[in-house]
Amino acid sequence: MIRSVQFGDIPTLQDWLTAPLSEALRLSKAPWPTQQPSQSRHSSASTFAMPVDVYSTHDQAVIVAALPGVHPDDVEVTVHRNTATIRAAAARIGQPQDTNAVTWYVSELGRGTFERSITFPFAIDEQGVEAQFANGLLRLVLPRREQDRPQRIPVRVGGSLSPLSIEASANAGDEGGSDQGASAETVAD
After folding, report:
1. For labelling, which of 17, 62, 76, 152 has a CA lying 20 to 30 Å from the CA of 97?
2. Buried b vs exposed e over 62-92: b needs ≥16 C-beta within 10 Å?
3. Which is nearest to 104 in space by CA: 35, 37, 34?
4. Could you read off the pLDDT of 49-81 as tens digits, one per residue?
5. HSE (CB half, 13 Å, CA atoms) of 160?
6. Can you tell me the distance from the alpha carbon of 13 to that of 184, in angstroms, rounded to the nearest whole number?
7. Is the CB of residue 39 less than 8 Å from the CB of residue 117?
8. 46: pLDDT strictly greater than 70
């Protein structure tokens, strides 16, 4: 931005080029998508992201999803291999009957369909998944499959280590049968 006494603030070429990207980044950080009132916000075909917390322990993963205004009967959870998907529909609670006679100033509450998929780096035991819904929060407990859980390996103390045998050839590509440069070593205690 260049400041001029005569013209005030004058945007530079860089300002013109980065403004759309800056706005997109600002909107992507909002927990719920925001739209201007003049845009069609109330279509039932709209899809919104839902904020989630996701963490894992050695034997399970947990997803906590915020679904304000969603009835538990309108929540669908599916798990396939290592991906959990949450789908929900939020009703238009508190909306005026005639939206044409309304002047919107702010409309940020999500309405319509919400969907979120989380993919984990391990397989999920689909039979052991638990889902609980309370106070607008959905909590999923997703146990890891037994074979994907980290295994602790016991370390033995004492005893003696067996010798390691290392064979190496300096001239691995030498086909002339020459023993020059070839060696074999044995490492022992």
Report:
1. 76
2. ebebbbebbeeeebebebeebebebbbbbee
3. 37
4. 689 999 999 899 999 999 988 899 999 999 998
5. 5
6. 68
7. no
8. no
